[in-house]
Write a structure and sequence with these properties.
heterodimer; A: alpha/beta; four-stranded antiparallel sheet; 12 strands; about 30% helix; B: about 325 residues; alpha/beta; Rossmann fold; eight-stranded mixed sheet
Chain lengths: ~325, ~325
C-alpha cells in the first residue's frame, strides 16, 4: 500500500501576547490508501491545528508535509491547487460549514465548477450521483441547508467533500455536533464510502470509543506532541502511555463492568508554559524524577510506540477478558 | 411515598396564533426522592431542557406551562411570583448549567458572585460570606481558593469555572440540585473529575441531571427517565434500564453508541430522525423509526408498569432476548 500523506517532524508555533505558543512539536504521521488514522486529544492538544496544517491552511514553522511523496509545505497557492483536489475536509459543525444562501446543488458542485473542466450536464449528473451516495433524495439539490437537519447537513458536507473524488479526507470531529441516534448513521456512511472508494481518512475526535470504532490506527496527542501511536485495538486494550490509560479510564461507559477508576488531577498545562521533561509529568500518577528532567521520545515496536520513560506503568483500565456487554 | 420533587402531568406549550398551543412537553411525570439522582436522558428537541427550565421557573418567553403540577417538598411551584422564585432559585434549588461562561457573570469576581448569593439566602455579613465562599471552593478542590475569590471567570480554566458554578449551586445547601448537561463542554479527563464531585453533591440533596449521554447517566444516576418527543417513554433504575431496555428507542440508543465493543462490526443506527418538538402527537412518536411498529402503534401508548420499579410506553415492549 502506498503512502498517501505524510507529516515529518511538523512543528507549529504562534506568537501570542503571553509568549510563544508551541501548538505542535515535531509531529510525524503517515496515512496509507484506504486507511483511517484517528487523532485523539483534549483541548489544546493541537489536533485541530494539525488538521489545518496538513491542509496548508496554517503554515508550519518546521517540518515537511508530503502528498504521495511530494513535499507541499513550501508550495505557493497556485502550485498547491492540484494537491487540493486530493485532499478535502469535513468540519464539526454542519450549521456553520455550509453557505446558507446556496442551494445544495451549488454547494456540492462548487469544487467541480472551480475546476472548469465539466459541462453543466456532467456537473448535474455528478451532483445526483453524490446525493444518492450519501443517502439524500434527488429533490434535495434544489433546497437550501436550513431545510435540513444536522445529520442531513453533514451528509451534504460529505457529498461536497467527495465531489472531486479525493484520495484523502480530513474530518475534524465529524459527528460530535450530532445527536447520538444520528451519529451512527454518519459513521456508517463514512465507512461505507471508504469501502467503495478506498479513500483514506484522517479523523480528529475527542471521543475514544468513536475513534476506536472507525480507525485502523490511533495517534494520541498531548500538548502538541504525539505521546502514543499504534493499532486501534492495541491502544485501547494495552495502552503504554499513562495519559492514554487515564483517558480510557475517564471515558464514561454504558457498561461499567470491569472499568478501573483513575481520575487525573488538575487541568492540562498551558502550551505556552510547557512543563519540563515529559509534559505530562505534573498530572502523571507514575511520574519519577527522570520524567522532570528528560523529554521521552517515541519508542517501542514499529507498530505500537509510546513517549514515556516508564511505559505500561499504569495497568490497562479496560478489562476485555470480562464478559461482553449484554447484547440484545 | 412523597418525593422531594414531584412533577405531575406537566404539559408545556408554545403559544400559537392558531388557537391551541403547540405542546413541547406532554403530561410528564417525574419523582425524585431525597438523596436520589435522576437522569433525564434525551436528544436535542426531546424536551429535556424544557423540563429543567420548568422546574426552575425559567421557561423562555412564548413558552408556558399549560397544565400539571410541580411540587418541591410538597410546595406547589407553578404560579409563584417573581419574588418568591428569587428565594427558591439559588436557595431551595441550586442550578448548574452546561456552559459556565453563560452561567457566570463575566464582569464580577468569583468572590462577589458567591458572596451575593450567600448574603441573600443566609443573611451573612460580608466577611462571613467570603469565608463561606472560600470554604466551599476549597471543598470542591479549587486550589488557592482564597486567591480565586478576586479573579474573574475568564481567568479560570473550563474545569475550574464549572467548579465555581457547582459552588454557586450548593453553597446555600439546597434541597434539590438541577444540572443541565454539566459536563458536555468539558474534556474527558476534566469530565471525570466533575462527575465525581457532582455524584457526591447531588446525592447529599437530590439531583435532577439532564444529559444526552447514556454513558454519563450510567456513571452518576440512580434512576433514568428517557424522554422522546416531549414524553417520558421509559424509566427505571439505571443498571436495570441499561442492561435490559424495554423501549425500542432506549435499546436503539444503547446499540448506536460505540462502546469499545463494536470494532469490526458496523454500528446499528436508528433510522430517520425525531419529529419536530411541536409536531402533533396522534400516534406513537417513535413509530416511524421503529422496527417493531405495527398497526397497534397508531394509538399513543401510555407509560405503564413493566416489572419491578420499571415503566415503559410501548405496545411492543421488549423483554430480555426479544430484540436483535
Amino acid at each position: 500500500m502506498s503512502l498517501l500523506l505524510e507529516a515529518q517532524d511538523l512543528s507549529v508555533a504562534f506568537d501570542t501576547p503571553k509568549g510563544q505558543l508551541q501548538a505542535l512539536d515535531s509531529v510525524s504521521l503517515q496515512l496509507k490508501q484506504g486507511e483511517t488514522l484517528g487523532l485523539v486529544g483534549e483541548s489544546g492538544s493541537g489536533k485541530s491545528t494539525l488538521a489545518l496544517t496538513m491542509m496548508r491552511a496554517i503554515a508550519p514553522s518546521k517540518g515537511r508535509i508530503l502528498v504521495k511523496g511530494q513535499e507541499i509545505s513550501q508550495l505557493s497557492r497556485r502550485a498547491l491547487r492540484p494537491f487540493r483536489q486530493h485532499m478535502q475536509m469535513i468540519f464539526q459543525d454542519p450549521y456553520a460549514s455550509l453557505d446558507p444562501r446556496m442551494t445544495v446543488r451549488r454547494i456540492i458542485a462548487e469544487p467541480l465548477n472551480a475546476l472548469q473542466k465539466h459541462t453543466p450536464d456532467q456537473v448535474e449528473a455528478r451532483v445526483q450521483e453524490l446525493l444518492q451516495a450519501v443517502g439524500l433524495p434527488a429533490e434535495a439539490a434544489s433546497l437550501r441547508p436550513a431545510q435540513f437537519s444536522g445529520g442531513q447537513r453533514q451528509r451534504i458536507a460529505i457529498a461536497r467533500a467527495m465531489s472531486l473524488k479525493p484520495e484523502i479526507i480530513i474530518a475534524d470531529e465529524p459527528v460530535s455536533a450530532l445527536d447520538v441516534s444520528i451519529q451512527a448513521q454518519i459513521v456508517n456512511l463514512l465507512q461505507d464510502i471508504q469501502q467503495r472508494t478506498a479513500v483514506a481518512y484522517l479523523v480528529i475526535a475527542h471521543d475514544l470509543p468513536l475513534v476506536h470504532q472507525i480507525a485502523d490506527r490511533i495517534l494520541v496527542l498531548y500538548l502538541g506532541r504525539v505521546v502514543e501511536e499504534g493499532p486501534a485495538e492495541a491502544i485501547v486494550a494495552r495502552p503504554r502511555h499513562p495519559y492514554t490509560a487515564a483517558l480510557l479510564a475517564a471515558t464514561p461507559r454504558i457498561d461499567r463492568g470491569g472499568h478501573k477508576k483513575l481520575i487525573l488531577k488538575g487541568d492540562p498545562p498551558s502550551p505556552i508554559n510547557r512543563p519540563s521533561g515529559c509534559a505530562f509529568h505534573p498530572r502523571c500518577p507514575a511520574a519519577k524524577p527522570q520524567c522532570l528532567a528528560e523529554t521521552p521520545v517515541l519508542s517501542g515496536s514499529d507498530e505500537h510506540r509510546a513517549a514515556c520513560h516508564f511505559p505500561g506503568a499504569i495497568p490497562p483500565p479496560l478489562d476485555f477478558s470480562a464478559k461482553p456487554k449484554n447484547r440484545r | 411515598m412523597t418525593g422531594l420533587l414531584e412533577i405531575e402531568e406537566l404539559s408545556v406549550g408554545l403559544a400559537s396564533n392558531q388557537g391551541a398551543p403547540l405542546l413541547v412537553l406532554d403530561r410528564i411525570n417525574l419523582t425524585i426522592r431525597k438523596g436520589e439522582i435522576l437522569c433525564l436522558v434525551g436528544e436535542s428537541g426531546s424536551g429535556k431542557s424544557m423540563t429543567a427550565l420548568s422546574v426552575m421557573g425559567l421557561l423562555p418567553p412564548g413558552v408556558e406551562v399549560i397544565s400539571g403540577s410541580i411540587r418541591l417538598n410538597g410546595q406547589e411551584l407553578l404560579g409563584l411570583s417573581d419574588t418568591q422564585w428569587r428565594t427558591i432559585r439559588g436557595g431551595a434549588i441550586g442550578m448548574v448549567f452546561q456552559d459556565p461562561m453563560t452561567g457566570l457573570n463575566p464582569v464580577r469576581t468569583i468572590g462577589a458572585q458567591l458572596s451575593e448569593t450567600i448574603r441573600r439566602h443566609q443573611g451573612s455579613s460580608k466577611e462571613q460570606a467570603l469565608a463561606i465562599a472560600e470554604a466551599v471552593l476549597a471543598s470542591l478542590g479549587v486550589p488557592a481558593a482564597r486567591e480565586r475569590l478576586s479573579v474573574f471567570p475568564h481567568q479560570l480554566s473550563g474545569g475550574l469555572r464549572q467548579r465555581v458554578m457547582i459552588a454557586l449551586a450548593i453553597v446555600n445547601r439546597p434541597g434539590l440540585i438541577i444540572a443541565d448537561e454539566p459536563t458536555t463542554a468539558l474534556d474527558t479527563t476534566i469530565q471525570a473529575q466533575i462527575l465525581d464531585l457532582l455524584r457526591d453533591r447531588l446525592a447529599e440533596a437530590g439531583g435532577l441531571m439532564i444529559t444526552h449521554d447514556l454513558a454519563v447517566a450510567a456513571e452518576i444516576a440512580d434512576r433514568i427517565s428517557v424522554i422522546y418527543h416531549g414524553r417520558i417513554i421509559e424509566e427505571g433504575p439505571t443498571q436495570s434500564v441499561l442492561a435490559d431496555p424495554r423501549h425500542p428507542y432506549t435499546a436503539g440508543l444503547i446499540e448506536a453508541v460505540p462502546d469499545f465493543g463494536h470494532k469490526g462490526r458496523p454500528l446499528v443506527p436508528i433510522p430517520g430522525q425525531p419529529p419536530p418538538p411541536a409536531a402533533l402527537r396522534q400516534f406513537c412518536s417513535f413509530r416511524d423509526r421503529c422496527r417493531f411498529a405495527s398497526p397497534a402503534c397508531a394509538e399513543m401508548p401510555a407509560l405503564s408498569a413493566a416489572g419491578k420499579s420499571r415503566k415503559v410506553a410501548c405496545h411492543h415492549a421488549l423483554h430480555r432476548g426479544t430484540a436483535g
